[in-house]
Design goal:
Layout: E1 4-8, H1 15-28, E2 33-37, H2 44-49, E3 57-61, H3 65-68, H4 79-98, E4 103-107, H5 113-117, H6 121-131, E5 137-142, E6 154-161, E7 173-180, E8 191-194, H7 195-198
Parallel strand pairs: 1-5, 1-6, 2-3, 2-4, 4-5
Antiparallel strand pairs: 6-7, 7-8
Length: 200
């Protein structure tokens, strides 16, 4: 609580399943959760199937990926992605300032790396400062590490494949490894996760 942590990994690594599980656990316990969905990629049916109580969720929908990533011409950068990121970061800041949520999740998983690199470090530091001392848990979901509090963790995910899973187990098996954290020695050992286990 009161810290920013990260869940990072490539597409199909289990990051969305883990995010849905966190939202489900928070809302099932009666807490309020907020999802800042930068590129409007979340699916209501999938959230409900994962056990997220939608009546306990504030879903801030960003720009669709179509408008955020217009076709590039003459080597120009994609200003839509920068705009969508800026709006999502402002929304996350306002929600964190309210102090009303048990969990605030900022999903930037589909953001281009170049756009993420253009986010000033002061923006991340400001978000970290806002959450300090609160009972709110804050998490950023992305493809690479971006920002975390000194007491937060960076949880790296990678897909191991679908071997040996029982039918209906979700189809993926992932490994989670704490990449950066203030932890005692030996706490960085990998943990295997399945989509079914995450939402149990």
């Amino acid at each position: 609580m009161g810290q920013f942590s990260e869940v990072v990994g490539p597409r199909s690594s289990g990051r969305t399943s883990l995010l849905m599980a966190m939202l489900a656990v928070t809302t099932a316990k009666g807490g309020l959760a907020a999802l800042v969905d930068t590129f409007d990629m979340a699916d209501v049916a999938s959230m409900a199937a994962a056990g997220v109580r939608l009546d306990r969720l504030l879903w801030v929908r960003g720009e669709s990926s179509t408008s955020a990533f217009p076709p590039l011409t003459n080597g120009r950068r994609q200003p839509g992605a920068d705009r969508a990121l800026a709006r999502a970061l402002k929304a996350a800041n306002l929600i964190l300032q309210s102090g009303a949520m048990s969990l605030v999740a900022l999903d930037v998983a589909d953001a281009p790396l170049q756009a993420l690199r253009r986010v000033p470090i002061t923006t991340w530091l400001r978000l970290q400062k806002v959450v300090e001392g609160q009972s709110t848990a804050a998490v950023i979901v992305g493809s690479v590490p971006m920002s975390r509090s000194a007491g937060g963790v960076t949880l790296g995910l990678r897909q191991l494949g679908a071997r040996g899973l029982a039918p209906g187990a979700g189809g993926i098996e992932s490994e989670a490894r704490i990449q950066r954290a203030r932890l005692v020695p030996g706490m960085g050992a990998p943990v295997r996760l399945t989509a079914a286990a995450l939402v149990a």
